[in-house]
């Protein structure tokens, strides 16, 4: 096995082009588990730790351009106000030690349907910036995942950054697991409100072959929420929203839970998170 | 592969490192530092917690080559048998040590917390230690130890 250690993005892309089977590693929280347990023996590791182009974030044109190797801890401490949904999800990742190392780029690269970062990225309509020596392109988060642990990433490409629109209203994330820390989601759900645009975004995690969007639930809520009224949500609207979210899931029975449980739990999460989000719509905007 | 890394303030070199091996393996098997424990090898238990450039991480999830030129501090680097670190002392005095296997990881995680946030609430202590498992389930004593160590750190500072 080779250990490749590029110090610039150009160098990293050249190495990935030359060795497309090299596995990129940043925080190592997924990759090292596979190596430790002999699940994977790649011909090379491509350590992105020295590539400074990937390790920071900037705010530009209404979105945050989040470098692929920014650890979750920094998202929690530095981006909680502009990307509240992603920061909430980041707070639920693993443990402090895992959040100090794990990255959204790595979460996307692994493309597990249970990845905690995915629902908020899908809900808010983030774009994934990927690059190779052939050039760079952006892939919508909603189209990035193609199958369990499969993504639109080509073998010679690296995930460079995630362009996440700044919150246009309250955002929420909730996850079901056996304890608060260190859990792979049984199911998870993210909701975003665009108060001025009267829009609703959703993301479902760990209840389908890929992270999913509950499109009908989004359309229903966008049409039925009492935008601008300052009024509380009506129970029938919240309930119908939850049912539409549950119906949008495509869960399976597995070791963490049954399909029926996941559907039910998702509809509960959807009701709760919509309620929490609605209650924190700024009153001056609402009235 | 050769890896050069500062460990507990000393420049160390490990040779014949397999590129896929972990920092934990390098520390324990190549540098003779068995303080960080090897239990789950998947970041679930926290027994291998060490500082990497001042940040607590699971050594089992860091590839050896990633620490080239960086600085690692293990539980061996916190205090000595003659002069325990206040966190180590608090663990001993409160009886927060049972079988002892989880202790090194918990000591490093607690050390980070009490220096970063000596006024941490109980909820914050629990959150900070959520990645460290004690199979003897001696968590109450461990919480006592962290509270005692936090007082000691505050006294040191004032």
UniProtKB/TrEMBL annotation, chain A:
Domain FAD-binding PCMH-type: 1-169
UniProt-recorded Gene Ontology molecular function terms: FAD binding; oxidoreductase activity
Domain of life: Bacteria
Pfam families registered for this protein in UniProt: CO_deh_flav_C (PF03450), FAD_binding_5 (PF00941)
Keywords: FAD, Flavoprotein, Oxidoreductase
Protein name: CO/xanthine dehydrogenase FAD-binding subunit
Organism: Actinophytocola algeriensis
TrEMBL record, chain B:
Listed Pfam families: Fer2, Fer2_2
Origin: domain of life: Bacteria
InterPro entries on file: 2Fe-2S-bd, 2Fe-2S-bd_dom_sf, 2Fe-2S_ferredoxin-like_sf, 2Fe-2S_ferredoxin-type, 2Fe2S_fd_BS, Beta-grasp_dom_sf, Diverse_Oxidoreductases
Broad enzyme group: oxidoreductase
Domain 2Fe-2S ferredoxin-type: 1-78
Keywords: 2Fe-2S, Iron, Iron-sulfur, Metal-binding, Oxidoreductase
Molecular-function GO terms, alphabetical: 2 iron, 2 sulfur cluster binding; anaerobic carbon-monoxide dehydrogenase activity; metal ion binding
Keyword field contains Transport: no
PANTHER family in UniProt: OXIDOREDUCTASE WITH IRON-SULFUR SUBUNIT (PTHR44379), XANTHINE DEHYDROGENASE IRON-SULFUR-BINDING SUBUNIT XDHC-RELATED (PTHR44379:SF8)
Identification of the protein by name: Carbon-monoxide dehydrogenase small subunit
Organism: Actinophytocola algeriensis
């Amino acid at each position: 096995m080779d250990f490749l250690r590029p110090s610039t993005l150009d160098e990293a892309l050249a190495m990935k082009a030359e060795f497309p089977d090299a596995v990129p590693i940043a925080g190592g929280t997924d990759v090292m588990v596979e190596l430790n347990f002999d699940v994977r023996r790649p011909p090379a590791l491509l350590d992105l730790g020295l590539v400074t182009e990937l390790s920071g974030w900037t705010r530009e044109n209404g979105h945050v351009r989040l470098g692929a190797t920014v650890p979750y801890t920094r998202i929690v401490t530095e981006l909680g106000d502009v990307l509240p949904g992603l920061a909430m999800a980041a707070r639920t990742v693993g443990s402090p030690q895992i959040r100090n190392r794990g990255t959204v780029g790595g979460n996307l690269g692994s493309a597990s349907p249970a990845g905690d970062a995915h629902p908020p990225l899908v809900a808010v309509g983030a774009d994934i910036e990927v690059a190779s020596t052939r050039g760079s392109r952006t892939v919508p988060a909603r189209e990035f995942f193609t199958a369990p642990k499969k993504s639109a990433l080509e073998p010679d490409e690296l995930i460079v950054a995630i362009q996440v629109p700044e919150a246009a209203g309250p955002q929420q994330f909730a996850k079901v697991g056996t304890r608060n820390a260190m859990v792979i989601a049984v199911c998870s759900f993210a909701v975003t409100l665009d108060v001025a645009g009267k829009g609703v975004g959703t993301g479902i995690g760990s209840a389908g072959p890929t992270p999913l969007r509950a499109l009908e639930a989004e359309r229903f809520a966008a049409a039925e929420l009492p935008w601008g009224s300052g009024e509380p949500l009506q129970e029938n609207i919240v309930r119908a929203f939850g049912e539409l979210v549950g119906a949008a899931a495509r869960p399976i029975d597995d070791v963490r839970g049954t399909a029926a449980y996941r559907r039910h739990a998702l509809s509960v999460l959807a009701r709760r998170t919509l309620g929490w989000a609605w209650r924190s719509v700024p009153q001056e905007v609402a009235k | 592969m050769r890896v050069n890394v500062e460990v507990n303030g000393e420049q160390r070199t490990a040779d014949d490192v397999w590129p896929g091996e972990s920092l934990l393996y390098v520390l324990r098997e190549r540098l003779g530092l068995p303080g960080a424990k090897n239990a789950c090898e998947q970041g679930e238990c926290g027994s291998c917690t060490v500082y990497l450039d001042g940040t607590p991480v699971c050594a089992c999830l860091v590839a050896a080559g990633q620490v080239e030129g960086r600085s690692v501090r293990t539980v061996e680097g916190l205090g000595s048998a003659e002069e325990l670190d206040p966190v180590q002392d608090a663990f001993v005095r409160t009886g927060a040590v049972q079988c002892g296997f989880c202790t090194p990881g918990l000591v490093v995680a607690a050390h980070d917390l009490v220096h970063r946030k000596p006024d941490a609430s109980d909820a914050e202590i629990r959150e900070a230690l959520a990645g460290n498992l004690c199979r003897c389930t001696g968590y109450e004593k461990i919480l006592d130890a962290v509270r005692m160590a936090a007082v000691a750190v505050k006294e040191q500072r004032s």
